[in-house]
Amino acid sequence: MAADLAAKKKEWNACLAKSGGFPGKCEKLEKDLRGASKASGVDSCVDETIALMKCTSSGSRANGCAQAFLAMRECNRVGGRQLVAEGAGYAPAPGKMGLFTASAGSLAQSSPPVRTLEGMQEFGQDYAKSLGVMPGEVRF
C-alpha cells in the first residue's frame, strides 16, 4: 500500500512539474493520490501543494506566500507537523511541545511584521550600526 501511494505521489509530482503552474492539469492523478492517501491514512500534502502553487503563481506572491510555505513545510516533516494553525498564529502541535522551549508557544502565536520599505531600511541601518558601519558610510 505504501509503495502504491509513493508511486502515485511521484507520478502526480512529475505531472505538476510539467503543468506550467496549473495543478488542474493533473486532476485525475490528484484524485487517485487523494484516494490512495485516504485509504492508507497518510497525508500526501495535496491541499498544501496546490495552495502553495496557486499562491506563487498569483498576485499573492508579492506578499511572500509565508503561510502557504509554512503549511507545506509542516505537512512534509518526517515526524509529523510540529506547528499547527491556531487563530491568526501557530501553536505547537499536540504531542510536540517537548521539541520547544517553554516560551516557544508565545513566539509561535505571534504574527510576522508587515513588510515595508521603511521597515527594511530601518533594519538595515540598525544592523549596519551593530557592525560598526555608520549611516552614509560604505564598506566593501
Question: What's the short version?
Answer:
This protein has 140 residues and is mostly helical.
What's the Cα radius of gyration? 20 Å
Give the termini separation.
Answer: 58 Å
Spatial strand arrangement across the major sheet:
1-2
Tell me the major beta sheet: 2 strands, antiparallel
Tags for this entry?
mainly alpha, 6 helices, two-stranded antiparallel sheet
Chain-wise SSE layout:
Layout: H1 2-18, H2 27-40, H3 46-56, H4 66-75, E1 83-86, E2 89-92, H5 104-108, H6 117-130
Antiparallel strand pairs: 1-2
Helix pairs in contact: 1-2, 3-4
What does this structure look like?
The chain is mainly alpha-helical and 140 residues long. Helix content is 51%, strand content 6%. It contains six helices and two strands, in the order H-H-H-H-E-E-H-H. The chain has helices at 2-18, 27-40, 46-56, 66-75, 104-108, 117-130; strands spanning 83-86, 89-92. Strands 1-2 form a two-stranded antiparallel sheet. Helix 3 (46-56) packs antiparallel against helix 4. The longest helix is centred in the N-terminal third of the chain and has 17 residues, at 2-18. The protein is extended and about 60 Å long. The mean pLDDT is 86.
